[in-house]
């Protein structure tokens, strides 16, 4: 707990058995009140290890996608009373030791959203980020900043922290169930004019760390461009987009929380 606010770490997992324990051990348990893992139909011992560690564990009966995994994670965190939610990959690509700093930035009430940036500083390439991914990251970030009027160093990190009210207000259930979910969330944060802060974060690319291949990276990149254009057209009043429309069925309200969690076991 920080400043009287309950801190939850959510772990969207898929075949994370080899790295989960190492990630868990470095989470700052002195400030984290709750740890939640959603297993997205893994074929290894991710669930068994998580339960051995005492992590609150949910499981999708089959693989539903990275975005669907996060929807379950956030629904569970809200249902269990979290005030601050930090999303951390359990593949140890990002250091868990920044959880305290990220949660503290939110607890200070200066920010609503914190993004752990691999681009601030020189950590991305030193950590093994493939050159084509680095170049694509820089190009896509430039384009999104232009389209959305932001000044972020990157939009594509998988390490984020959110205030409860942000997760409750954004129509997350209208977002993709796949990898584009992350980027759509950042576009929503900009749309609703939440205060977005960044912190420099080292990253580590190694065989056990999850990463999408070149083909899926291209699909993701095209989705980022489409999301940015949709954002600009919506701002100009030229097109309505469900991800920027707070329809009740797209919000993580009480009824929808229970519906999302009912699909798990």
Report the order of strands and helices: EHEHEHEHEHHEHHEHH
Please identify the structural class as seen in this structure. alpha/beta
Strand order of the largest sheet: 3-2-1-4-6-5-7
Percentage of residues in helical conformation: 40-55%
Notes on the protein architecture:
The chain is of the alpha/beta class and about 260 residues long. It has one domain: Spore Coat Polysaccharide Biosynthesis Protein SpsA, Chain A. It is built from 10 helices and 7 strands. The chain has a 7-stranded mixed sheet with strand order 3-2-1-4-6-5-7, with helices on both faces. Strand 1 (about 5-15), helix 1 and strand 2 (about 35-40) form a beta-alpha-beta unit. Helix 6 (about 130-150) runs parallel beside helix 9 (about 215-235). The protein is globular and about 50 Å long. The mean pLDDT is about 95.
Protein traits:
single chain; 265 residues; alpha/beta; Spore Coat Polysaccharide Biosynthesis Protein SpsA, Chain A; seven-stranded mixed β-sheet; 10 helices; 7 strands; 14% strand
Reconstruct the topology from this structure.
Elements: E1 7-13, H1 20-26, E2 34-40, H2 46-52, E3 56-60, H3 66-79, E4 84-87, H4 99-107, E5 113-117, H5 123-126, H6 131-148, E6 160-163, H7 164-169, H8 180-191, E7 196-200, H9 214-235, H10 254-262
Parallel strand pairs: 1-2, 1-4, 2-3, 5-7
Antiparallel strand pairs: 4-6, 5-6
Helix pairs in contact: 3-10, 6-9, 8-9
Summarize the structure.
This protein is α/β, with parallel strands linked by helices and 265 residues long. It is built from ten helices and seven strands. It has a single domain (7-262), classed as Spore Coat Polysaccharide Biosynthesis Protein SpsA, Chain A, CATH 3.90.550.
């Amino acid at each position: 707990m920080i400043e009287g606010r309950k801190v939850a770490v959510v772990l969207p997992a898929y075949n994370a058995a080899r790295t989960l324990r190492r990630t868990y051990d470095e989470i700052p348990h002195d400030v984290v009140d709750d740890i939640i893992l959603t297993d997205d139909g893994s074929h290894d011992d991710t669930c068994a290890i998580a339960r051995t560690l005492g992590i609150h564990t949910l499981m999708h009966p089959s693989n539903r996608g990275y975005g669907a995994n996060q929807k379950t994670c956030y629904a569970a965190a809200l249902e269990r009373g979290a005030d601050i939610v930090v999303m951390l990959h359990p593949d140890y690509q990002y250091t868990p030791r920044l959880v305290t700093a990220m949660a503290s930035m939110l607890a200070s009430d200066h920010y609503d959203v914190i993004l752990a940036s691999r681009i601030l500083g020189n950590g991305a390439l030193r950590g093994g980020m493939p050159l084509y991914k680095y170049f694509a990251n820089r190009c896509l970030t430039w384009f999104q900043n232009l389209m959305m009027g932001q000044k972020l160093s990157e939009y594509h990190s998988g390490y984020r922290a959110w205030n409860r009210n942000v997760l409750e207000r954004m129509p997350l259930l209208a977002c993709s169930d796949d990898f584009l979910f992350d980027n759509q969330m950042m576009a929503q944060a900009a749309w609703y004019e939440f205060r977005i802060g960044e912190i420099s974060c080292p990253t580590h690319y190694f065989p056990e760390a999850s990463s999408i291949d070149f083909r899926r990276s291209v699909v993701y990149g095209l989705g980022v461009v489409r999301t940015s254009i949709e954002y600009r057209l919506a701002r100009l009043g030229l097109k309505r987009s469900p991800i920027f429309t707070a329809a009740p069925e797209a919000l993580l309200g009480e009824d929808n929380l229970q519906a999302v969690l009912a699909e798990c076991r």
